[in-house]
Amino acid sequence: MVGFDTYEISIPSLPAAIVVNDPKNVEHVLKNNELFIKGDFFRSRSWDLFGNGIINADGELWRIQRKAGLRFFSNANLKTFINEILPPLLADTKHDLDAAIYSGAVLDLQNVFLQLTTRLMGKMAYDMDMHGGLPFSRAFDYASGETTNRFTNPFWKIKEFVFGARLRAAIKDVRAFGQTVVAAAVEKRTSKLPEHAATDQGSSKTPEHAATKHDSDDHPTVPPSLQGNLINSLLDHLPTPSLVADAAMNFLSAGRDTTAQSLTWTLYALMRQPATVPRIRAELASLLPPTSLPTTTTTTPLPLSFDTVQPTTLPYTLAVYSEALRLYPPVPFELKEATADTTFPDGTVLPARAVVLWVPWAMGRSTRIWGADALAFRPERWLSRCEGSGKVTLVSKSAYENPVFNAGPRACLGKKMAELLAVCVLATLVWEYDFEEVLERGEGGCGVGGERASQNSLTLPMEGGLPCRVRRRA
Q: How many Å separate Cα 435 from the centre of its chain?
């Protein structure tokens, strides 16, 4: 993609549609939340998976769920998340990496990150002990891929009528898991246990939660400093358990899958661009007291906290993550439906009920937006150095040029949490470990000279995971 042309899509039996890539046209869509809605075209295809959740919702139902999310993603909760909830779970992740080192096994980093983000969302958002590898995870991944196919196959209903048994079973599993989450939360409410002392009484009722136990599983799931979890906020705002279940599954998918996938692609980029790693480590070393630097080793703990993982403190580490998001956005395409005739800034006229599509994956590779080196992984494009002080700061990019976290009224609620989590995880792992991508096809690699591809999905999981070898830094 080198220009800002708008393209028309014409497929028999599907509504009129255009693809836009001019940031001004994307801004027109994202700023006008009442003019451009999810609409029937999107909802009819994603309803089975997302129901009335925030991903599907418009109007008042969307506003209620967003209000519940805003209450949860408060600055105080983010501080608790980084300072109290993340450290023991990240310690378990390191334990898994060390076990792979000891055994010499090839490790799938995508599974490692999915385990971490599942447990994080479970503890922080739902006060439950969840684990990666749940039957829910496999069911959701399959249903997401099949839901994606509905947008390109006008005969999807016929196909699924004949061959859709597995999809129907997967959706049933997803729905059942959502009901389990709500039932556990309601049980805790009715039992009137203090929120900070509650443990997952409901999780033992289903094999969904049977997985490898870590030491941190014995910790209280919700620290006293957490000002309410997401599931209770949803119960406070939504009138029925089915609506709460839909909302819970939508937030879980958004917080778990996209974050794990973005971390996977970031580590992949670092393995492909190893010269970036020493710069991250040099920045991390600046967190240590000057007196400790002569004796610093990789076992010297970094003083990571809510205050030290901010963009002002670790700008290069966040720039690395931002660059990976640009090239590998967790939500690679978006679409909306017009509620009335509208004219775009470039003069394109879109009739009511027509669909507009934009593709962050393609926009992140646009030479018109990012320059001639748009395909290169270059974190420095996100940084600026002050001439006077020499201080490096993060450069702000327009959300309409880089709509990775959406923009306007529907801007991603979890953006700050995702960035803080990513910086903390990257800092910990890059400081203590070296990672080497496995290229041998017999071990899941893509071959010398090959590139890893994304799986067919509404998000951007890496097909086949990210097999690698891990070792402790010397």
A: 22
